[in-house]
Design a protein that fits this description.
Blueprint (H helix, E strand, L loop, with lengths): L6 E12 L2 E12 L3 E6 L5 H8 L7 E6 L2 E3 L4 H6 L2 E4 L13 H11 L9 H12 L17 H14 L4 E5 L7 H16 L3 E5 L3 H7 L2 E6 L2 E7 L4 H9 L17 E8 L8 E6 L3 E5 L6 H8 L9 E4 L2 E2 L5 H6 L2 E4 L3 H4 L7 H6 L7 E2 L2 E2 L1 H15 L15 H14 L4 E5 L7 H13 L4 E5 L3 H7 L2 E6 L2 E6 L6 H11 L2 H4 L1
Parallel strand pairs: 3-8, 3-9, 6-7, 7-8, 13-20, 13-21, 16-19, 19-20
Antiparallel strand pairs: 1-2, 1-4, 4-5, 9-10, 11-12, 11-14, 14-15, 17-18, 21-22
Helix pairs in contact: 3-4, 3-5, 13-14, 14-15
The chain binds adenosine-5'-triphosphate and magnesium ion (MG).
The site of adenosine-5'-triphosphate has 20 residues, from strand 2, helix 1 and helix 14.
GO molecular function: ATP binding; ATP hydrolysis activity
Pfam families: ABC_tran (PF00005)
Organism: Amnibacterium kyonggiense
Length: 505
């Protein structure tokens, strides 16, 4: 069915090396008008690198790119855009100007291309931005600085900008990683609509359920090479097999932990100002899952427990001792490990190595006299790299040289090394591949000395990792489900229905 469609974009034997690393080893693929091509692969498989080559931001070290059958050299994003190729990159923050307004960010490609004239007035920019935002960015203030938006809104700004030029090829590199289920569903509908109008779409995601739902065809990459090609009807199991090369992907749990003594006790807390009272208890060895749409108050609640924002109401105790952190350091001192939602901004230190990043909360352990023992640190890091399956050139690799998902594993992994009493993880699976997701889930579930609170807006993920799942909406807990008896689709519906209509719009 897709065979007779025009090939609008193709990679022919594309290779890419970064020093010692071979990111791509001779990849060939074709993207056809009117189809959604899924690109899947483990963290570090080369998906983003291929995306960058197709969008002119990286040059291949071998092979070439063809646009509508003609060999081209795309030397910049602008040249790719001229050829009708628009890309929404995985690294959202690198693609936005943080202190510029949403409106300015939306018109950036038009400005660069000189399409708004040499010195467009603020009114012109505002009007053009309003046209681009139209009905795609409800609830986003065009005059706000982009840096003041949450991760999900930043992602939505980038997607709206990508759609604005009505490209003939749209490449989306993990566009849904930071979106909640209702926003994901809306994007899926948009993508199918675009394909129906003849746009070629490349769609990258680690959620195979999404791949199966939106893609016509899928190419799986493994270690920089094509490991399989699949046409609809797609089968998630076969995709997983191609991605992991036959390794077991699922962390299917047999039992649910009921836990030991109470570690965390929250009484009468408020996630949002003036919101309903929240009561919860988490026991040692237990993993409490919290889910809900964006704006439900998950992050606000977690951040209060971690000392990142002031406790609004009620009492909290850890191991029976009253706990009211005024600062993240208070929480760390009380044995609370916290992985924030906005990791790139809050938890990654540019220029640091993998070893530095992993041992950050626990420096005292590696001190010998006044100096840090590099060898002890490297040894511990090497163990963690192995346990988490982090793809990198070694403990001293710069954090920026890792693929998105591998950076994620490092930030989550550090707290396991620190031996925390209470682990608080906000969206720990964002951007990690199916194998790593199982690895992290196993790690979280195996943290028997700690009580764990995990927030995720992805129903599949939360059911995989948690012993109990609380559903939040409008700052309150509106339900509790047992992961053994509820499936992802049912939970997604529950989350959407629990939220007030204006928040799901
Ligand atoms: N600028 C760079 N310098 C050095 N190595 C790099 C650079 N960019 C990518 N790599 C390496 O190339 C390989 C492929 O990375 P890429 O980002 O394409 O993976 P990916 O499939 O997009 O992974 P993820 O699912 O984690 O986003 C990885 O081993 C990565 O560490
Ligand atoms: Mg990537």
């Amino acid at each position: 069915m897709t065979e007779d469609r025009t090939v609008v974009l193709a990679a022919r034997g594309v290779g890419k090396r970064f020093g010692e690393t071979t990111a791509l080893a001779g990849v060939s693929l074709e993207v056809r008008a009117g189809e959604v091509l899924g690109l899947v692969g483990a963290n570090g498989a080369g998906k983003s690198t291929l995306t960058k080559i197709l969008s002119g931001t990286e040059a291949p070290t071998s092979g070439h790119v063809e646009v509508r059958g003609r060999r081209v050299r795309l030397a910049s994003a602008e040249q790719a855009r001229e050829a009708g190729i628009e890309t929404v990159h995985q690294d959202v923050d690198a693609a936005l100007v943080p202190d510029a307004s949403v409106a300015e960010n939306l018109v950036l490609p038009l400005l660069v291309a000189g399409r708004l004239g040499r010195f467009p007035s603020r009114r012109r920019i505002r009007a053009e931005a309003a046209r681009i935002a139209a009905d795609r960015l409800p609830g986003v203030d065009l005059d706000a600085a982009v840096e003041d938006l949450g991760v999900s809104d930043r992602q939505r700004v980038l997607i709206a900008r990508g759609l604005a030029t009505a490209p003939s090829v749209l490449v989306l590199d993990e566009p849904t990683a930071a979106l909640s289920v209702d926003e994901q569903r809306a994007l899926h509908a948009t993508v199918r609509e675009l394909a129906a109008q003849g746009t070629a779409v490349v769609f990258i995601t680690h959620h195979l359920g999404e791949t199966v739902a939106v893609c016509d065809r899928v190419v799986a990459l493994r270690d920089g090479a094509v490991a399989g090609e699949f046409a609809a009807p797609l089968d998630a199991k076969r995709l997983a097999h191609a991605i992991l090369g036959g390794l077991e992907a699922t962390a299917q749990r047999s039992e649910v932990a009921t836990g030991g003594e109470v570690v965390l006790d929250v009484a009468g807390a408020q996630a949002l100002p003036g919101g309903p009272a929240i009561e919860l208890v988490v026991r040692r060895g237990e993993v409490l899952g919290i889910t809900g749409l964006l704006g439900s108050g998950k992050t606000e609640l977690l951040e209060q427990l971690a000392g990142v924002r002031p406790v609004l109401a009620g009492t909290i105790s850890i191991d029976g001792v009253p706990f009211r952190p005024a600062h993240p350091v208070d929480a760390i001192a009380a044995g609370v490990g916290f992985v924030p939602e906005d990791r790139a901004r809050a938890a990654e230190l540019p220029g640091w190595s993998v070893a530095d990043s992993l041992t950050l909360p626990d420096l005292a352990r590696y001190r010998r006299g006044p100096l840090l023992s590099r060898r002890a640190e490297d040894r511990a890091t090497a163990d963690l790299i192995r346990a988490l399956g982090v793809v990198c050139s070694g403990p001293r690799a710069a954090i920026e040289s890792l693929s998105g998902g591998n950076r994620q594993k490092v930030v989550v992994g550090r707290w396991f090394a620190a031996g925390s009493r209470l682990l608080i993880l906000d969206e720990p699976f964002r951007g990690v591949d199916i194998g790593a997701r199982a690895d992290i889930a196993r790690l979280v579930r195996g943290a028997e000395a700690a009580a764990t609170v995990v927030a995720s807006s992805d129903p599949e993920e939360i059911l995989e990792v948690a012993d109990r799942v609380l559903v939040m909406a409008d700052g309150g807990i509106v339900g509790e489900v047992d992961p053994r008896t509820v499936d992802a689709e049912t939970l997604a519906d529950l989350m959407t229905r629990a939220a007030r209509p204006q928040e799901t719009a």
